[in-house]
Specification:
It is a single chain. The protein folds into two domains: 143 residues, P-loop containing nucleotide triphosphate hydrolases (Rossmann fold, 3-Layer(aba) Sandwich); 57 residues, no CATH class. It is 39% helix and 23% strand. The chain is globular and about 55 Å long. The longest helix has 17 residues. It is an alpha/beta fold. The strands form two sheets. The chain has a six-stranded mixed β-sheet with strand order 6-7-8-3-9-10, sandwiched between helices. The protein has a four-stranded antiparallel β-sheet with strand order 2-1-4-5. Helix 3 packs across helix 4, helix 3 runs parallel beside helix 5 and helix 7 runs parallel beside helix 10.
Length: 261
C-alpha cells in the first residue's frame, strides 16, 4: 500500500492554481524528494499531507483513507514535521522542545526521557545540552533538535520542508550524513521539499519534479536522469548539472553527455 496518495488534487490561492490535478502515489519506507523551481507548489504539496491545507478539489489519502479534517490531531500523531528555521520554542529548553508532544500525549516520564536520550544520541547532540535554550545553540544544533522533536513520537511519516536550507555547507553536509544514518536505523516514509537538486539526489530514493503546480515527472533518480520526460525536466536538470556532476557519476554512472543530446 502506498502511504500517501493524491487523487486529482488542486489547490488555489486567490484564484491561481498552486497545484492542478495532481495524481501521485508516494512509496513507503524511503525518502521522497519534492523538487522544482520556486513557486512550483512544493510546500503546498507537503502541507496537504498533514492537513495544514485542504484541497479545493480532489482528495489526499493517508494509508488508504481520505484525510478526516475533523480529526487532524489524530492524523498528526503519526506525522512528524520539521521546517527550515526549526520552529523551536525559544522559552523552552532543548529537552522541553524535544519532548513537548510526548508530554502532551501523557507519556510515562521514564519513557519520555529514554526516547529523548536515544534521539539525541542518534543526531550527535550531547546530553549536556538538555537544559540549554535554542539561542545558546548553533544553527546546526538547532536543526538537530528540530529533527529530534519531529521524531519523538516515532511517526510513520516524516515531512521536511526545506529543513537544511539555512545551514552553512559544512554543517549541511554533516546533517546529511546523519539523516542517511537515521533512515538506515529507523526506516520510515519521508517526504522532503528541497530546491537543491544535489540534496535531492543525495538523500532521495524517489523524486517528484514539479513545475507550475503540475507533476512533470516522478520516479527513481537514475530513471529520471537517464530518461527526462519533458524538455522542462531536461533543462531543469541541466541547469544544475555542473554542481552535481560528481554525484551523478559516482552514484548513478550518468555523464553530462546525457543532457547534450
Amino acid at each position: 500500500m502506498h502511504p500517501i496518495i493524491f487523487e486529482e488534487v488542486s489547490k488555489f490561492y486567490n484564484g491561481k492554481p498552486a497545484l492542478k490535478d495532481v495524481n501521485l502515489s508516494l512509496p513507503s519506507d524511503c525518502t521522497t524528494a519534492i523538487i522544482g523551481p520556486s513557486g512550483s507548489g512544493k510546500s503546498t504539496l507537503l502541507q496537504l499531507i498533514n492537513g495544514l491545507l485542504i484541497p479545493d478539489h480532489g482528495q489526499v489519502l493517508v494509508y488508504g483513507k481520505p484525510i478526516d479534517y475533523s480529526c487532524l490531531p489524530k492524523l498528526r500523531r503519526h506525522i512528524g514535521y520539521a521546517v527550515q528555521g526549526t520552529g523551536l520554542f525559544p522559552h523552552l529548553t532543548v529537552e522541553q522542545n524535544i519532548t513537548l508532544l510526548a508530554r502532551l500525549m501523557k507519556w510515562d516520564k521514564q519513557q519520555i526521557e529514554k526516547r529523548a536520550r536515544e534521539l539525541m544520541d542518534l543526531v550527535n547532540l550531547p546530553h549536556s545540552y538538555r537544559k540549554r535554550y535554542p539561542h545558546e545553540l548553533s544553527g546546526g544544533e538547532q536543526q538537530r533538535v528540530g529533527l529530534c522533536r519531529a521524531m519523538m513520537l516515532n511517526p510513520k511519516i516524516f515531512l521536511l520542508d526545506e529543513p537544511f536550507g539555512a545551514l552553512d555547507p559544512i554543517t549541511r553536509s554533516e546533517i546529511h550524513q546523519e539523516f542517511v544514518k537515521l533512515q538506515k536505523l529507523e526506516a520510515r516514509t519521508i517526504v522532503m521539499v528541497t530546491h537543491d537538486l544535489k540534496e535531492a539526489l543525495k538523500l532521495g530514493d524517489f523524486l517528484v519534479i514539479l513545475n507550475q503546480g503540475k507533476v512533470e515527472q516522478c520516479g527513481k533518480p537514475q530513471e529520471i536522469l537517464q530518461n527526462p520526460a519533458s524538455e522542462f525536466v531536461k533543462n531543469f536538470l541541466h541547469s544544475q548539472l555542473e554542481d552535481v556532476s560528481l554525484i551523478l557519476k559516482k552514484h548513478f554512472n550518468v555523464s553530462q553527455t546525457l543532457f547534450e543530446k
